[in-house]
Structures are given as structure tokens and as C-alpha cells.
Design brief:
Number of domains: 3
Helix content: 40-55%
CATH topology of the largest domain: Lambda Exonuclease, Chain A
Distance between the termini: 88 Å
Number of helices: 26
Shape: globular
Number of strands: 17
CATH class of the largest domain: Alpha Beta
Largest sheet: 7 strands, parallel
């Protein structure tokens, strides 16, 4: 045969075999086999990725329920964090994630480069399309991905002779419109409208603004959250949007993303796990280098090395002792393909290179287990596999050797039928857990959280999960939206429509940054206008005037005038840290800031929280915000050493002349209530139990996630509103 290449593995048993240390020979001889072949039973062919994934999930449940195999030097019962699944492909990671999710088993995924994640590339494709609406590849990726999810025939219908995939701007569907699937037409039109509207602002708006509006308008976050590993995908999207917020120019951000992908492709992120996560570890074999785990599952053992590229040109860069070689495949005029010996030789080198890489990966995979290893899969045929090509081939050789067979347990398993179960139900089905299995949530000692986040949990646990765990953007209700025709009269092509949330944030920022002398003065309108322009909203913006008027109504109102006339001290965005301790010595640490703190000459203290809404009238106006106001009152008591601070709300959308004052709760009762909420939140995070509230409660808190939590058939007729 041909001589070995430098990249190939030459196994020499005398030097490669690992011997048991003499002092542990007796101990080793008494051990049960630490390697188990979970041989998947199928009628024909090799096991699929899903077959192996469900076999793994089923065996994990058995391990937890039986407390075996024991792990660690103290031979303790295994926990979820002791188990790792090492995959050679991202598709296997997805299959394992799905099977563990169905089984109700917690898991964490690592080892896949962030910038190569599919959802990250989908968001990058949308940004590329906004910058270059005629880019056919970007249009193809956006239409085929979660943004629209159209059929392949629809993509063909959006082509034309000499023209690739395009969006039907101006209703130009092209000559193949008949191929567009009726079910896809609305999605294509929606994407086209969003791209047309946002592309006009692409050179002026930041990438964060552009992408967040695209995500909101096309419900991209909803779609990825419903895909396999939805929570992680949603978190990746939120992380990318945060990165986009840190860049001012969309085109430079896209270039930065492209460079990051190149670096990410050559430098896979190392797999890191927190010991606080009691969950199965999912990672690629590449990412497992340098790590070890008590129990390891290795699927895809029957998979052959991936096929190489069979292009028309083959290149071998050679080594220090051999020159580089170039070979080409020729095609005759009649279509006959000629592959000269030089081309065949380089194909063989490529095949051997891929086989050597698969052998290295197999070696890494089978040397990661500290206590027990499970190899999952079955052969593709009744004939023995080549042990140099597949791991299952090596297992077949071991199984036929009398001495080696004693160290290998073989368990023929049938893939279980998928069924949604909870971890508790799974344990009950497999028998009572051993006394060493930890199933109770861990005790918490300290929880640091913002009051608004804890308030969301108090109002609705599902809302807390969507906002603070999955970090999904809330769909503002009853907000002004740009219609399909784009911007209107006064708006220039570069103007970006601000929704109610953005307008409220800008009003808060202006009130935070105007000079103290602006309180109670007649020219407050000019002061607010200048400050808003500094925040990036010029006086030519169609919504500039409305925001300034909200701010001015407060600055010229009766309360602001009294503050100015009395010479009271004004402080804005006053940070606080409020520590509450429960009966079990567990700490709840609330950290936040108060919008406005007024210290009067007599020592009295007012805390005013700005709200962009109009607000209700009467005694119950502050009720929806009682949670936050109670926290602010207790923080003010401790920060300013006053017995009874006043706390209230200034509704900028209504009449903010005088704040709506709130009577705060007793300090001891508040502490007991908040620490109990903290305990419930800790349990909810452990169990991932975030139930939704009834629709009436969602309406009461004006939640923007109703469409995600309640079907449209649950909606009541719209109530009349007064303007």
C-alpha cells in the first residue's frame, strides 16, 4: 500500500496501551465493566440520531433512579451534572436536546461557536438585507429561515430568467408568480414591507434599533423560542441584539460580525459549565478536549467520516519534504468525466486525512470518562465494520475477543417511544430513587435582583420568564405603529418611528438630565427640547414635540414650581441597595434607582417615579405600581434616615402637575412578603415552573405578551377607551 502520511495515526500496542498501576491491579480486577455498548436494535440500517438521543435520555433516567453507576472517589450516587453527551455533529446536539427536553431532564449546551449559531446568522442575514435590499443570498436566507419560513417552490417563484431570488417590492412578483404558495404570500409581503420601511433608515439608525424593530415586526423571537433548544436560541438572539446596541453604524457592525464568524470558525469556544447547573452537559467532542466527566455518552459510533468536497480541483499543500500538488478533473465535450491518476491520488489523501481526523475525535471521546462510558449506536449492515473507520467496528472486534469482552457490557436496547414526562414521573416509573439521589432544590442564601424584575414575578411568573430569563422584547400594546406605506408627511426617509416604550424612555432621560434650574421655569419647553436633541431626537423628528410636551407639563406643573420656590434639593436617578433578611437568614438584595428624590428644607423626603402612561384618577391610581412604590419607600427610609417618606407617581401622559401619592406598606410586613417572593422565585428558577396568569390579570397589568400566552379565541371583545 501507499506509505503512511504524517497526519495518519500509526497504532503501536506496546507503547500505546495503558496499563493498570500495580498497586491497583486487585482493585481493577474486581470492578464491573465500566464501558457499556448500548446496541440499538433496529429492523435494518444504522440507528438514527433521534433513536440514539431517546436511548440516551431513557438511560439517564435509569441512572438517576438507580443511583448507579457510582461516581467519584467516594463512590457517591450520580447527579445530572455528572453526565455528559459528546457529539460529533451539531445535528446530534439538537437531537439530544430534543430528547432530553421531552423527557423533562435539564441540560446545558456548550462547545458551539456563538457567531456560527443558526439564529445568529439569521439575524445577520436580515441586517445584510436591510443594507442591501437587492442582495439575493440575504433574501434567500431571510425568506427560507425563521423570519418567513416559506416553501422552496415559493423561492423558485421569486426568481426570473437571469435573476435570482428577490423580494416583490412594489408588487413586482415576477413572471413565475404562479409558483408562489398561497400560504406563503402573506409572509413574503410582510417581510417585504418591513425591509422597505427599515432599509430607508439603515444608514442613519443604529443596528440595534433596526434589528429590534425587525424582530418585533416579524415576531422572530416567538419563532426561535418555539424551535428545539428555544430558550438558548432566544438567549443568543438577545445577546446579539445587545451587541448591536453597542455599535453606532449598521454596516460596520455587519463587517464586525463577518470577521467574528471567521474567528469563531477557526477557534471553537471552550466548553465551560457552572457547578451550580445540575444538568446534563451537551457538547461537541472538539469542545471536550482537556475535560473529563464522571459519566459519558458517545453517540454516532456507526457514523463514517464525512464525505469531502468533490470539486473539479484538488490541492495538496505538501510538507517540508514534498512539494505542493494541484490536480484537476476534466469534462469532455460529450459530458464524459476524466479523473487522471493525480486527481485520484489527491482524493485518496483527502479521504485518509478525514479518516485520521475521525480517529482522533474517537480517541478524544472515549478518553473523557472518569467512571463510566456508554457507547450508543448499531452497525449499518450485517457485515462487520472496518475498525479503522467507525467506532462500532472497533467494538465488534472487542466483542469477539474473549479477554476484552469481559471488560465490555453489551445492552441491546430498543429506542423508546417519545412521550412527554416530568423528572419526578420518570423516577417513579423506573422505581424509587436511592437515598443518595438529590431531587430537592438547593437551598439559596442570597438573591440579588432589581425591584422591577421581582415585581414582574409577583404579577405573573410567565411574564418574568419571558422578560428576564428568555429576554424577549415586549410588544407594546396600543402603541403607534408605522403602516405599510412607510413614513408619513412630516417624516423624512431616515426617521424611525418611536413606539410608546421608546418615547417613555426618552422622556425619562430628559427629566434625568435637565438642569435643576429647569424646575418651575417658564422656558422649560426650550430646555427640554435642547436636551431631547442631545439624546438623538432632533426638533425635525415628527415625535419630538410630543415628547417635549410631556416633559414640559411636569417641569411647569404645580409640584415642580413648589420645589423651585422652596429651594428644595433635587436628586435624579438615586441608586440604592436594599437588603432584607428572612427568618432563615437568607438575604434578598434589591438594587435599583429612584427617578426623582426631593429633600425639603424641613427634612421631609419625597420619592417620585415617572410613568409615561396617562394614569387613572382617584385613590386607586397607584395600585398597579404599589410593589415598586413600597420598595422605594423602604429604601428611602434607610437611605435618608426618615421615618415616613412620601412616595408617588408622576403620570407624564396625563396631568403630571401633582404626583399621585401612595400610602406605603409597613416595613416588617413588606420584608416578609418580599423574602417569601424571593424564595418562590428561587424554586421557580430551579424547576422552570412559570405558569401563566388568567387573561383578566394580563389585561389589568397591560402585559404585552398576551399574544404569546393566550390564544386569540380567549380574547374578549375590545373595551371602549376614552381619549
Amino acid at each position: 500500500g501507499t506509505p503512511p502520511q504524517l497526519f495518519e495515526i500509526a497504532y503501536v500496542g506496546e507503547t500505546e496501551d495503558l496499563l493498570v498501576p500495580p498497586e491497583r491491579e486487585a482493585e481493577a480486577s474486581a470492578l464491573e465493566p465500566a464501558v457499556t455498548w448500548l446496541r440499538v436494535v433496529r429492523d435494518k440500517g444504522a440507528s438514527t440520531k433521534l433513536d440514539e438521543a431517546f436511548v440516551i435520555a431513557d438511560r439517564v433516567r435509569q441512572i438517576l433512579s438507580s443511583g448507579s453507576p457510582r461516581v467519584g472517589p467516594d463512590a457517591r450516587a450520580p447527579q445530572l451534572r455528572d453526565i455528559a453527551v459528546l457529539a460529533t455533529s451539531n445535528a446530534m446536539l439538537d437531537a439530544a436536546s430534543f430528547a432530553l427536553s421531552v423527557a423533562g431532564l435539564p441540560f446545558v449546551v456548550a462547545g458551539r461557536g456563538f457567531f456560527r449559531a443558526r439564529e445568529v446568522r439569521d439575524v445577520a442575514s436580515m441586517l445584510r438585507l436591510l443594507l442591501e435590499p437587492s442582495d439575493p443570498l440575504a433574501a434567500l436566507e431571510v425568506l427560507r429561515g425563521p423570519w418567513a419560513g416559506v416553501h422552496d417552490t415559493t423561492l423558485l417563484g421569486l426568481t426570473a430568467p437571469g435573476r435570482s431570488v428577490h423580494l416583490p417590492h412594489g408588487g413586482d412578483w415576477g413572471p413565475r408568480e404562479a409558483l408562489v404558495q398561497p400560504a406563503d404570500r402573506e409572509a413574503v409581503e410582510r417581510v417585504t414591507r418591513v425591509v422597505a420601511d427599515l432599509s430607508r433608515a439603515a444608514t442613519r439608525a443604529s443596528p440595534g434599533v433596526l434589528l429590534r424593530e425587525a424582530v418585533r415586526a416579524l415576531s422572530f423571537d416567538d419563532v426561535v423560542a418555539r424551535m428545539p433548544r428555544g430558550a438558548m436560541r432566544a438567549a443568543n438572539v438577545a445577546k446579539l441584539l445587545d451587541m448591536a446596541d453597542g455599535h453606532a453604524d449598521a454596516r460596520s457592525f455587519l463587517e464586525w460580525l463577518d470577521e467574528a464568524v471567521e474567528v469563531d470558525a477557526s477557534e471553537t469556544e471552550a466548553a465551560t459549565f457552572s457547578e451550580r447547573d445540575d444538568a446534563v452537559r451537551l457538547l461537541t467532542v472538539h469542545a471536550s478536549k482537556g475535560l473529563d466527566f464522571p459519566i459519558v455518552f458517545v453517540p454516532e459510533i456507526a457514523a463514517s467520516p464525512p464525505s469531502g468536497e468533490h470539486g473539479a480541483v484538488r490541492v495538496d499543500l505538501g510538507t517540508s519534504g514534498t512539494p505542493a500538488r494541484l490536480a484537476v478533473r476534466l469534462v469532455e465535450s460529450d459530458g464524459a468525466v476524466l479523473r487522471p491518476p493525480s486527481f485520484e491520488a489527491l482524493l485518496d489523501v483527502d479521504r485518509r486525512r478525514r479518516q485520521a481526523e475521525r480517529q482522533r475525535l474517537a480517541y478524544v471521546a472515549v478518553t473523557r470518562a472518569a467512571d463510566a462510558m456508554f457507547l450508543v449506536g448499531c452497525s449499518r449492515s450485517s457485515k462487520p465494520d472496518d475498525p479503522a473507520v467507525t467506532t462500532v467496528g472497533a467494538l465488534q472486534v472487542v466483542a469477539e475477543d474473549a479477554n476484552a469482552r469481559a471488560l465490555l457490557a453489551i445492552d441491546d436496547v430498543t429506542p423508546p417511544s417519545p412521550s412527554v414526562v416530568t423528572p419526578e414521573a420518570a423516577l417513579e416509573a423506573d422505581g424509587a430513587p436511592s437515598a443518595d439521589v438529590i431531587v430537592a432544590p438547593p437551598r439559596w442564601r442570597s438573591l440579588a435582583i432589581a425591584p422591577t424584575a421581582l415585581a414582574d414575578f409577583a404579577y405573573c411568573r410567565r411574564r418574568y420568564e419571558l422578560v428576564h430569563v428568555l429576554r424577549m422584547p415586549e410588544h407594546t400594546r396600543a402603541a403607534a405603529r408605522a403602516t405599510g406605506g412607510g413614513t408619513s408627511g412630516a417624516a423624512s426617509a431616515g426617521d424611525v418611528t418611536l413606539d410608546a416604550r421608546a418615547r417613555g424612555t426618552l422622556a425619562h432621560r430628559v427629566l434625568e438630565r435637565v438642569e435643576d434650574s429647569a424646575f418651575g421655569v417658564t422656558d422649560a419647553h426650550a430646555v427640554a427640547s435642547r436636551q431631547l436633541a442631545l439624546e438623538g431626537v432632533p426638533d425635525t423628528h415628527p415625535q419630538h414635540r410630543a415628547i417635549v410636551e410631556r416633559v414640559t407639563r411636569f417641569l411647569t406643573g404645580s409640584y415642580a414650581r413648589r420645589v423651585a420656590e422652596a429651594g428644595a434639593a433635587v436628586s435624579r436617578e438615586v441608586a440604592f441597595v436594599l437588603t432584607l433578611v428572612d427568618a432563615d437568614a437568607r438575604e434578598l438584595v434589591l438594587h435599583g434607582s429612584m427617578d426623582l428624590v426631593v429633600t425639603w428644607p424641613d427634612g421631609a423626603v419625597d420619592v417620585v417615579d415617572y410613568k409615561s402612561a396617562r394614569g387613572a384618577k382617584g385613590e386607586g391610581a397607584s395600585a398597579p405600581y404599589a410593589f415598586q412604590l413600597d420598595v422605594y419607600a423602604e429604601a428611602a427610609r434607610r437611605t435618608f434616615d426618615v421615618a415616613a417618606p412620601r412616595v408617588g407617581l408622576a403620570f407624564l401622559g396625563g396631568d403630571p402637575g401633582e404626583p399621585v401619592w401612595h400610602t406605603p406598606s409597613d416595613g416588617a410586613a413588606l420584608s416578609a412578603r418580599l423574602t417569601a417572593l424571593a424564595a418562590a422565585l428561587s424554586t421557580a428558577r430551579w424547576t422552570s415552573d412559570f405558569p401563566r396568569e388568567p387573561l383578566d390579570r394580563c389585561d389589568a397589568i397591560t402585559c404585552g405578551f398576551i399574544g404569546r400566552c393566550h390564544a386569540s379565541t380567549e380574547r374578549k371583545p375590545a373595551r371602549a377607551t376614552t381619549t
